[in-house]
C-alpha cells in the first residue's frame, strides 16, 4: 500500500511521527509512506486552501516534503505534484495534538486534510489524540493512538461501505485521553456538541497599547450526548465518525418546500 501522510500541527510535530509509524505498519515492507505536511503549524484552518497565493514546496528527504500552506494545500500538492505519477491508496491526517471531537471538527485542519483526500476520490481518515489528566503527563501522550491506530484503520478499510454519493466518505477518528492499556474499545459515533461550550475571543493589550485578540476554546472535558464522539472518548473508547463534505441540512428540506 502507498500511503500519504499529512497533518495540521506541522512537519516537526510529534504526532506526525506517530502517524508515520502507524502508516509504516499499514504499508508493510513492500509499501511506501509519503509525507507532505505544513512547514508551520496550521491548527484551526479547517479546509482552507491557499487559492490566492502560491506556496513554497520543499523536499526535506526521501518521500518527505513540507509546503507553506494548509493541510488541504498539502494534499493537493501531493496528489497533483509530488505523487502525480504514483497516486496513493490512502490519505491519513494527524495525529493531532488534542481532540477533534464535537464542534472542534468544524475548525480542524486535520479534518481538512482528510476531507480534501475524500474530495479527490481517495479513502481518507483523520486521527486525533484526546488529552486529559490521565494521559497528558505520560512519557508518550500519544500512546493510545500509536498502539491502536493501525488496527482501527485496517478495520475501517476492510469495512469500507460502497460509496454512491457525489461527496466521498472520510472518517474522523479520536483516541481517548487514557493510557493505551486503558482503551476500552471502539465505538462508531455521530458528531457531538458540547452544550454551551463554544470558541470565544479574549482581548489583551501589549505594553505599547496595541490591542490583540486571542481565540479561546471551551472546556474539553465536558461530555456530549450518548452515542456521540466526545462522550465515547471521555468514557475511554476510540470514536469513529463517518463524515462527508455535504453541508446540506437534509432534515429541513421537506419543511422548506413551503417557500417554493
Describe it for me?
- The structure is a single chain.
- This protein is α/β, with parallel strands linked by helices.
- The protein has five helices and eleven strands, in the order E-H-E-E-E-H-E-H-E-H-E-E-E-E-H-E.
- A nine-stranded mixed β-sheet has the order 3-4-2-1-5-6-7-11-8, with helices on both faces. Strands 9-10 form a two-stranded antiparallel ribbon.
- Helix 3 links the parallel strand 5 and strand 6.
- Helix 1 crosses helix 4.
- The chain is globular and about 50 Å long.
- The termini are far apart.
Offer a few descriptive terms.
globular, 23% helix, alpha/beta, two-stranded antiparallel ribbon, 25% strand, nine-stranded mixed sheet, 260 residues, 5 helices
> pLDDT below 50 for ≥5 consecutive residues: which ranges?
none
Radius of gyration over C-alpha positions, nearest whole angstrom: 19 Å
Helical element count?
5
Main sheet: strands, sense, barrel: 9 strands, mixed
Helix content: 10-25%
Q: Return the average pLDDT rounded to an integer.
A: 96
Strand line-up in the sheet with most strands = 3-4-2-1-5-6-7-11-8
Number of strands: 11
Structural class by SSE content: alpha/beta
* Helix and strand run: EHEEEHEHEHEEEEHE
Overall geometric form: globular
The percentage of residues in β strands lies in 15-25%
First and last CA, distance = 50 Å
